[in-house]
Amino acid sequence: MESLKQRINRLRSLNVTRYAGAVAIVLVLLLARGSLLPWIRNGYVGTPILVAVGAAAHLFGFGPALVTLALGSVTCRYLFVPPKGSLWIVGLDSQIAFGIFIGSGLILALLIRAVQRSQSHAEEQASLCRFKQQELEQEAARREGVEATLRSSDTILRRLIARQENDKHSLCDEFHDGIIQSAMGVKMMLESLSASSVPASHWKVITDAIGYLSKGIEDGRRVLQGIRPASLDDFGLVASIEDLIRESSGNGLRITRKYDPAIGRFPETIETTIYRVVQESLHNAQKYSGSDAIQIELSQLETPDELRVVVEDYGSGFEVSAAVNGGCGLIGITERIRLAGGRSAIESAVGMGTRVSAWLPLSAGR
User: Fold this and answer.
1) How far apart are CA 319 and CA 345, in angstroms?
2) In the beta sheet, which residues pair with residue 312?
3) How far is it, in rounded angstroms, from Cα 110 to Cα 63?
4) How many domains in the chain?
5) Which domain, by its residues, includes 200?
6) 140 in a domain, yes or no?
7) Where are the strands (E) in the chain, listed by range?
8) pLDDT tens for residues 65-81?
9) β partners of residue 344
């Protein structure tokens, strides 16, 4: 149902209706003033006209208020101010008073217009604020949904990484305790044979078989070391990094390392994350940098309580933005650290080498 305010606004939008409303107010003024003749002395018209002007300005605007002022002043002068029946104002004092009255009406109409404009502006600002508030609430809700999705995705990724590490652990145990042990048993059985107990035609086959088994066992151990080093579970992070260094050294590549004496055993999550960062960084440095020297630094910081690892080479370097967007290795490093609650930095430039740094809070594995 249309409210009174909506009706007034609709009437304001129609010029004919607005000015007709002003004329109607003047007619009501004349009727009211005429009906009060027995009680009000002749000439008393100022206050009723100002009331009518105020009503017209409030209901219909500044223009109709001027019409009400002009029409009301003329008709009231003609009908109620002595000498009646004339539009001429007699006497200087009366003319001055009439001028003051007209000025007062104009000021009243202007004041009401200023108040209405101020109210309209305030309503527009309030409406704009409400609209902006709704936008902010919608944006906050959208961001909250995105953040919830990201948190859910991070949880899934953490579980996937943990599941991968557990699967690798189980696979390595089964492979080592099954195929590797069986191959070692066969090798030992063949090695227990002597050349005198075996026909000469078969001895070369046996020695070749022992060689193949030895190579297969060694290859199998190397594969297991790459999947999940046993030393990481048995001896800790430093021993596992040392195994990586022994495997990676050679062919003119020199790897130096610096370990904090305070480094000991850490929760499995921390050790696995740092180990994978070093493993991937060494692999990238060997494969792409062309550097003859790599430096590894592992330190435990007290403030804040976190573990820091730095792997630096002095090779060809690269554009970090292009490499991060195009390579899974660097993304894997940054994502592992992020999911473990840490932070990472990859610094490189063409011809300037590469520095991979990671900080992992020790509380992440607790």
Assistant:
1) 14
2) 295, 355
3) 10
4) 3
5) 154-223
6) no
7) 254-259, 293-301, 306-313, 343-348, 354-361
8) 888 888 888 887 777 77
9) 358
